[in-house]
Each structure stands twice: as C-alpha cells, then as structure tokens.
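Recap slide: Peptidylprolyl isomerase, sequence and predicted structure.
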Amino acid sequence: MITWMQRHKKWLVITIWISTIAFVGAGFVGWGSYDYGSKGGVVAVVGDKEVTIDEYNQEYSKLYSQYAQLFGNSFNKELAEQLRLSDVAFSQLLQKNLIIAYGSDLGLIVTQEEIARELINYEEFKTDGRFDKDKYIKLLNQNRMNPKDFEESLKSSILFQKIQALFNIEPTANEVENISKLLFIEDDITYKILNLDDMQVIANEDDTKKFYEENKNFYKSEISYDLEIKELALKSANSTEEEIQTHYEKFKSDYKFEDGKLKSFEEAKAQVIKDLDENFTKREALTLYLNLKKGEDNFDKKITVEDSKLPFIAENIERIKEAKNTEIIKPFFENDKFYIVKLAKINPSSVLSYEDAKDKLLIDLTKDLKSKKLDETAQNQLKDFKGTDVSGINRSSASKIQGLNEKESIEFLNQLFASAQKESVIRVGSKAILYRVNSSKMVDYDKSKDNFIKDEIRQIQEGDLMSNLLKKLENSFKIKTSIETTKE
C-alpha cells in the first residue's frame, strides 16, 4: 500500500485539502498531533501572515485522521512516517496560506453569509433537518476545535473553491474518447483475500514496553480542569395571572410547536411560568456571582474533570474552555439550575505512565503486529496462490468482487488499474488482496461513461494547473520557515 500511496500522494493531498469536514464525527484517531514545540510558537511566515505551531499540529491531526479514514486499519504511525506525513502537513499548510494570499491579491473575499450558508448545509450539524448549534459545538469539541477556528478553515475552503473555479477547463471529445478506452481496459484476474483478524500474534511484555518507549509521546492524558461550582436551583417567582398573561403577549412568538405553529395562552402557560421563574432566579444568581467575585460567598464544591467528561451542554462547555485561569464565568442555566463556575486551573495533557497506557498499547501493538504478519503472509503466498477467477472486470466492476464491500471493491479496482504489476498484493483497510492478471483487453468506446471521464480529466487538469500556480506563488510571496522538511 505504501508504494501506491506515495505514487498518488499529490492526488490524496488535493482530495483531502478540499474537504474541511471529513474529520467531524470520526474523532481523532491513533497518534494525535505532531509536537514541534510549545503552544503558540511560529513555524512559518507566508507574506505577512504568521503560521503557528497550533495551526501546524491541527493540520497534522486532521491529515492523519483523514488518511486513516481513507485506508482503515492498515494506516498507522509507521506508514505516516514512511509517507513523511509531517512534511506533507507542513507543505499543505504553506500552500493554503499561499492560496489565501493569492485570493486576497485578486480581491476575492468570503462573507459571513457565505460561511453561514455553507455551514447549515452539513448534515453532521443538523437535528431533524435543521442546523443545531449545540450539536455543532459538541462535534467540534469532540475534535478539539472551536467554532472560530472551524469557520476560519471553512472560509479558506470557500476561497480555495473560488480560485479553483477560475481554472475550470472543458475536455475535448477526443480526450474523452481516448481516456475512456484507457480507463476501461478489462482484465481477467485471479484474486484471494486475506483478513487482518485472521492473523494470530502474541504481544509479550518486552515488546509492549519497547513499543511504549518508542511511542510514549502519543499516549497522553486528556486535558483536565479544576473547577469550583456554585449551584442555584430554579425558584418560583409566584407570578400572578396578569404577569403570566403579560409575558405571553409580549413574547408569544417564542412559544411554538415543532411545526412552527404558535401556541395558545393555555398551551404555552406552563412554559411561560417556567420562563418567569428562570428570570426571577437569574437575578439572584447574578447577585451570587458578584458576591463570589468579591470573595463574599463560597463555592459549593470543587471537582477535577477531564475534557471529554465536562458535565454541561456543549455551549456552556465552550464558555469554560474559553475562560482564563481563575476566571469566574457568569451564571448559565441548564437542568433547571443556574451554575456559576470558576475555572481554577487547566491541567495540560501529559505522557501516561506505562501502566496507565498499557491497555491502549496492547491494542495498538497487536494491530501493528497483525498488520506486519498480514503483509508477510500475503507475500509468502503470492507466488503460487489459488483464488477466485473473475473475467472482464474494469474500474466499474465493484459488484464482481466477492468478499469485499462496495467501498473496498472500488478501492481495490482503482489500485489494480493504477498498477503496472501483473501479480502483486493490494492492501485495502484490514484486508490484503493477492491478485494475478491473467489477460487484458481494450474495450469499445462507451459514450454513456462520458460524464465520469470528464470529471476524471478535469480533476487531473485542475490538479496540474493548481500545482503550477503554487510554484509561481512560492516565488511571488516571501516564505520563512523554522521547520526543515525532507527532500523528495
């Protein structure tokens, strides 16, 4: 797989570059960030813009996560190092900033309205078909991002798409026909599938300790927070019927059914009373808040809680994370209580001890050993393997490959037809597929595939144009870096 990935690295980077949302909901996998120094340092300057270590670490984490999603269990730290993923992330970060600088020079802008329109289109952030701000913030928190950084990334993506649109080229009829014949060559092959789960390995104590020493910087504790908390339960305002009626008349547009229909006074009354109680209790909560700030009152309890276990809704978690050490946060309401929270201290992530990391170490080491054994087994069986014969397959023959799901079949066929080897092994996720090409033949031109072929040609042409543009921009904008990357 590493050879194929290196051969297609430029395509992979462009594909991942365009997508800013692919990581959301999937979580950060495997190895986290690539640590080049302390938080807030500068790793490069592109034109007038400083590029920080935080931006670089975030770029590496997203890139690692996206490669892992593309290639499944077969992608690991070793492959990331062989691909020099840290260099790719750094180069990609510089390219993004070059494109942004170029877009600014052209006078292209991205408005807040454009960002909002793009944001509400993502299904990942919707509940019952509508954009859900709480879900949005929660998903970003799970991926160690905040709305400001994500929306800035989205802004860059929209700007990139605007620049990319300047380079749209329509392929000619001859190009489409000739490329179609090449892409849809048909092969008769024999293949055999080996599975990672079928590999038997033993991870002993010495191997595990060695693995820990080599990789311990990737096994870190979560950031945690020392909090002091004051709670104030919802109190009754003992509102009169007139006060309830007045509040309803003033804010009746706030009281609706899910379909948007307004509630009558009687239908909304219970909620109106609760809202009046909340307003009443809030005044007392604000008084408590001021007393706590002056040191005239005490918090009810102290807790230390990990980032993923903060016991509040996403919007309030975000407020805690944005607070400074020793800051007391204004009262917020949830679960029929007002909470006043003091961020006493942020406890940074630290390397776990061997014993604390051991369970995760065993999982990762076992996966690593199985992956190596899968590769060895596949190579040992390749010469004389007996497998399943299938005739007349091309890039669109995913349904003919038994033992793989549709996504795996597509990936196998793409790699197969990109390879010049008659007999080899292709890694797809947790599987190794041995194959032997028995014969190949050209097929007649099929006009029904024109749209697919045009998309392929456009992608290649636009990729080449973008590559040439970046080379020009590298000479147009001054770039200073503090990271040395490996030359190809």
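The mean pLDDT is 83.
The domain at 2-178+448-481 is CATH 1.10.4030.10 (Triger factor/SurA peptide-binding fold).
(End of recap.)
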